[in-house]
Amino acid sequence: MNSMPAAPHSPPIILTGARGCLAGVIARHFTTGGASVIRYSRTGGGEFRPLAELVSPAGPPPAGTLLHLAWSTLPFNAEQQPADTGAQDLELLERILRRCAAAPVRPHFIFFSSGGTVYGNAHGGRPSTEEDPCHPISRHGRATLAAEQLVQRFGREHGLSWTILRISNPYGFDLPLSRPQGIIPVALHCAWEGRPLTLWGDGTARKDFLHCTDFNQALGKIVERRLPGIFNVSSGHSHTIRELIALIEQATGCRLVTRHEPAHTWDVHDSLLDNSKLCAATGWRPVVPLAEGIRRVTAELGRP
Fold it and tell me: N or C terminus: which one in the chain shows less Cβ crowding within 10 Å?
């Protein structure tokens, strides 16, 4: 059964970082079900409200459910920046949390974390659970873990209800090719255009990929239940980059030429996420295997 948003009279869903590609997928999912989605972005305009309005005491108080996706750096970019990477994002997060804590009717706060970076490499080759210690090896991962700790502190000190989602690698939507993130759309365009695909390392790194349809179903159940706590949101199956490339070649009928660069020390090599806690709490199960998901996104994006 689909987990669709509640009826229009339900409390609104507030979405930060709303200009992002994943945020757009989420917004469409909830509005399709009749939910009211209020979108905030650092740059307002059109259907987007400025984030400055959300953090201002003069702005409307947040209510309902707040999905916090606003984050200014990616793992690759974070390594090119000063050691205080994430300070701006943490400051914004704290201001939003303070507004939530002071609201007459406090919203349920959902923080979009990164299961691929906060754990570091899988412990002993087994999938990481929410109870495992976090050993982030990148600046992005350390900043994200600090954000998780800030959310939990506001829960303890101010009684704010919260959920932290440690998400794997959602896919099934296009991304700007200029972004150093999202191997699936990049690889598809390389296959279609006959360009070499640049890989970090030898292709043996393992990642968990979650189709956006499965992700939206999980998120819908979490929002509906105002489910508290930390949850891995993943397919529960990891694949090597070599396996991913083979699936893309099958789906496109094109051979992918790869160009290898040295692996980065900050890039997680073995990312495996156990999703059993979320499955047990909600009854959710991911249903789109990677091969099927690749076929879907290949058809949806279409050959240029």
Answer: N
